[in-house]
Design a protein that fits this description.
Layout (H helix, E strand, L loop, with lengths): L1 H8 L2 H14 L2 H27 L6 H44 L3 H19 L2
Helix pairs in contact: 2-3, 4-5
């Protein structure tokens, strides 16, 4: 259960920020960053239990919003979710491009094209 919570909680911004505070403040930086952010996990557990009581047939948050807010509210939430995922994807690509630049010296702009292209090729040939 703990690994499930952590895998859902840690995302690009968390990884980038925790490494930034580690660089700035040493070992205490990521510790206090995680300690402050762990309050979100506690609040999430309480909210998830309440949502399951109110809508026992829903499996995802978007299903709950569809039941609660209707089609329009569902579409608004999906728009913002797509926007957030696009920002996270851009952060991942740019962070990977900077790491690739630091490791190999390749231009960051070229690395921003190589990373998604390599993922597309890997996904395509991974089917076979």
């Amino acid at each position: 259960m703990a690994s499930s919570v952590i895998s859902a909680w840690i995302w690009t911004a968390t990884l980038l920020e925790s490494s930034t505070v580690a660089y700035k403040y040493g070992i205490r930086g990521p510790f206090w960053y995680a300690a402050g952010a762990s309050i979100q996990i506690i609040i999430f557990a309480v909210v998830a239990l309440e949502l399951k009581k109110r809508a026992p047939s829903s499996h995802t948050f978007t299903e709950f919003l569809y039941l609660r807010l209707g089609k329009f509210g569902h579409k608004v939430f999906l728009f913002f979710a797509l926007l957030a995922n696009s920002i996270v994807m851009a952060m991942l690509v740019l962070g990977g491009a900077v790491a690739l630049n630091a490791l190999t010296g390749i231009d960051i702009t070229i690395a921003c094209f190589i990373i998604p292209l390599s993922i597309v090729v890997y996904t395509y040939f991974g089917e076979f």
